[in-house]
Design a protein that fits this description.
By secondary structure, this protein is an alpha+beta fold. It has five helices and 15 strands.
């Protein structure tokens, strides 16, 4: 009997040690599968929509243009069960607070675009590359697959591709049509970015694209392509479009130092007759070009 009790005790201790790890691994795999499926469905839905700008009237801008975008646009191409205004986001299963990718806690879920990204409205003292944005309220909705999503909308987003012509500096904000914070399992928790919480950004009013920034490794590099494979085969040098998504969601994804960095993109632009590397200034959301070998931060992004 003593030997049996001892064996059961040992089994119990081993189970107590290993079970949380096994459960965590199962959750991670489940979330990864759900995340990829949601990205595929959202990308397909956006591709079926007409122009993404102009939903709602001007006097609705601060009130319900995001809700109009969901009801009059997105719901036509994506199966949606429930829609909530920004005062009742929790009724659509969204958490009241969440933990960021860096481990800090946001006690109040962002209810407007500028609460999500205060730097989206950029008015420098010298008025260079100013971007004035009239804030819009978020809208919440639930999909038939059980995801809870908050959508932030910019009705004035444009059609212009960022790197279609020669330029010096350019704001990234006009390319952003919508941003989504999604929760894969509603209020169940852990309500943590990189686990059940994630983000997507929808760019350009036509020929739109959806990007989904994920976990990344920050490194210092010149404008030559960094060796992101040193972090694993699933890591790659983030392009300009993913950097825009990191900028919009910097409160959720970046620490204070990263949120004020100048970050190289893998994308190049035609400048002074040459294809030249571009970098994003995270304090303003502005892209610059530089053909020098300046050392700046690089984001090695993990594939979705």
């Amino acid at each position: 009997m003593a030997e049996i009790l001892l064996s059961l005790t040992i089994i119990g201790v081993v189970a107590a040690i290993t079970l949380p790890s096994l459960t965590g691994n199962i959750n991670e795999r489940t979330w990864n599968t759900q995340r990829k499926a949601l990205f595929a469905r959202m990308s397909q839905a956006v591709s079926l929509m007409p122009a993404l700008n102009g939903y709602g009237t001007r006097n609705e801008t601060t009130e319900n243009v995001a809700e109009t975008f969901v009801t009059a646009g997105l719901s036509k191409v994506l199966k949606i069960n429930n829609i909530c205004d920004n005062e009742h986001l929790s009724d659509c299963g969204l958490p009241k607070k969440l933990t960021t990718l860096t481990g800090s806690v946001i006690d109040q879920f962002p209810k407007t675009f500028l609460e999500l990204c205060p730097k989206f409205n950029f008015e420098p003292e010298n008025n260079v590359n100013t971007y004035k944005f009239e804030d819009t309220k978020a809208s919440g909705f639930e999909t038939v697959n059980g995801e809870s999503i908050a959508l932030y909308y910019n009705p004035a987003c444009n059609y212009e591709k960022l790197f279609a012509q020669t330029w010096g500096f350019v704001n990234s904000q006009p390319s952003v049509c919508a941003n989504l914070i999604y929760d894969l399992n509603g209020n169940k928790g852990p309500n943590t970015v990189g686990k059940d919480i994630g983000v997507m950004t929808v760019l350009f009013a036509s020929d739109s694209m959806v990007v989904a920034p994920t976990d990344f490794k920050a490194a210092s590099s010149t404008n030559s392509a960094p060796n992101c494979k040193q972090f694993g085969e699933e890591y790659f040098f983030a392009d300009a479009y993913n950097l825009i998504a990191y900028f919009v969601n910097s409160r959720l994804l970046l620490n204070e130092e990263q949120a004020s960095a100048h970050v190289w993109a893998s994308t190049k632009s035609l400048w002074q007759g040459q294809l030249t590397p571009v970098y994003l200034i995270f304090n303003s959301g502005t892209f610059g070009v530089d053909n020098s070998s300046a050392r700046r931060t690089v984001f090695c992004m993990k594939r979705l």
